[in-house]
Each structure stands twice: as structure tokens, then as C-alpha cells.
């Protein structure tokens, strides 16, 4: 843990995205980013043959209300990258607090991630998972390259949501959200 502000030296623009040119320690930077609690999602898409693909992701964010746009990012060396780059649609499935095991299942490489998972095909065949907090069915609009990730921009074409408690992730662990009124009830 480091309480001192991290101020990188001014990089040479020609080498700014080179992995060896930053003075910031990647592990310490990851620890600092981990202090920001996020929701947990499973992003899904379908291959051209209809096979479902999905992965756990916490880099989901809203971009715009009008038009309704969202984004998420995927590391460039992901085995699923080509599927998501070529998919016409993707679904962002926001997980509930009771779906930690599902988040862990989709975080690992496996050919049978959808075995035993309740889902229906959504727009473009992208799986919509059952029992989540929300889902956003998106048309792929654009991709941007940022460092070691590809940022996917999606136009939301359909969505659902409910009042189920969301699953959170911070400091490398899953957690829960307690509203102020819930904390007051706790002993």
C-alpha cells in the first residue's frame, strides 16, 4: 500500500503505449484500481454458428443516455476476443449477489460455461442470462484500442432490470451492497 501520490514522468508520445515506458508499477496500479468497487457482469455473444460465448467482466460503464450507449473492455489476448469483435450484438448481464458461483464459472476458460445455466437467445443470438439484476442487449457500434484492452461500444436496443441486490467486486473479492437503511437495522 502506498499513500504517496503516484505521478508518472511525462512520457515520450511515440512510446506512451509501450509496456516498458511507464514509471507506474503495474501490480501497485492494479491494487489502487481495486479500491474502486464495481458491479459484476457476464458479457455474452454468439458465434456465427450460434454457439454461445461469455465471460465475467467488471469494466462495464454507461456512456450516454441519448442515444443509450454502454461500454466494456476485454484484454487483447483473450481467447474470446475474435468472437466479440465479429458479433453483431452482445448482452451485458448484471449479476445479483446470489450469483457469485456463476461469476467465478465464467471467469475461467472452459468450453462448457453454459452447461446448467438458464439462458435464452437475445438480439443477435447473444445469451440473456436468467435471474440477474439487469441485462442490456446491445448492437455492437464500435471498438477502440486502449493499451492492452479493446473497448467495445454498444447501442442498447433492449433492457430489463429488477430490484435484486447486485453482486459487487473490490480489492480482489466479491461483496455486497448495504444501503444506509440496511446498516441501521444490523446489530
Q: Give the total of domains.
A: 1
Helix content: 10-25%
Task: Show unreliable segments.
Answer: 12-16
Question: Largest sheet, described in full?
Answer: 7 strands, antiparallel
Tell me the β content: 35-45%
Overall pLDDT metric = 88
Number of β-strand runs: 12
What's the helix-strand series? HEEEEEHEHEEEEEEH
Within CATH, the superfamily carries the name Electron Transport, Fmn-binding Protein, Chain A
The N- and C-terminal alpha carbons lie at a distance of 31 Å
Radius of gyration: 18 Å
Question: What spatial order of strands do you see in the largest sheet?
Answer: 3-2-6-9-10-5-4
**Morphology:** globular
Counting helices, strands and paired strands, the structural category is mainly beta
Q: Which fold name is given in CATH as the topology?
A: Pnp Oxidase, Chain A
Protein name: Flavin reductase
Keywords: Oxidoreductase
Organism: Bradyrhizobium frederickii
Family: Belongs to the non-flavoprotein flavin reductase family.
Can you describe this structure?
By secondary structure, the protein is mainly β. It has a single domain, classed as Pnp Oxidase, Chain A, CATH 2.30.110. It has 4 helices and 12 strands. The strands form 3 sheets. It has a 7-stranded antiparallel beta sheet. The chain is globular and about 50 Å long. 24% of the residues are buried. The model is unreliable at 12-16 (pLDDT under 50).
Question: Outline of this structure?
Answer:
14% of the residues lie in helices and 38% in strands. About 3% of the residues have low confidence.
Amino acid at each position: 500500500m502506498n499513500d504517496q501520490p503516484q505521478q508518472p514522468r511525462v512520457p515520450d508520445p511515440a512510446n506512451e503505449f509501450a509496456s516498458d515506458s511507464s514509471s507506474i508499477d503495474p501490480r501497485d496500479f492494479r491494487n489502487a484500481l481495486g479500491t474502486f468497487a464495481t458491479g459484476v457482469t457476464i458479457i455474452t455473444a454468439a458465434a456465427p454458428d450460434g454457439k454461445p460465448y461469455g465471460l465475467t467482466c467488471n469494466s462495464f460503464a454507461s456512456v450516454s443516455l441519448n442515444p443509450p450507449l454502454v461500454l466494456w473492455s476485454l484484454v487483447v489476448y483473450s481467447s474470446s476476443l475474435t468472437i466479440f469483435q465479429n458479433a453483431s450484438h452482445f448482452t451485458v448481464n448484471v449479476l445479483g449477489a446470489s450469483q457469485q458461483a456463476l461469476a467465478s464459472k465464467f471467469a475461467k476458460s472452459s468450453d462448457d460455461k453454459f452447461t446448467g445455466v438458464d439462458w435464452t437467445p437475445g438480439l443477435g443470438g447473444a445469451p440473456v442470462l436468467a435471474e440477474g439484476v439487469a441485462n442490456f442487449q446491445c448492437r455492437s457500434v464500435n471498438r477502440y484500442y486502449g493499451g492492452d484492452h479493446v473497448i467495445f461500444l454498444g447501442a442498447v436496443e433492449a433492457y430489463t432490470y429488477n430490484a435484486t441486490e447486485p453482486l459487487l467486486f473490490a480489492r480482489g473479492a466479491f461483496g455486497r451492497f448495504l444501503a444506509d437503511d440496511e446498516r441501521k437495522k444490523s446489530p
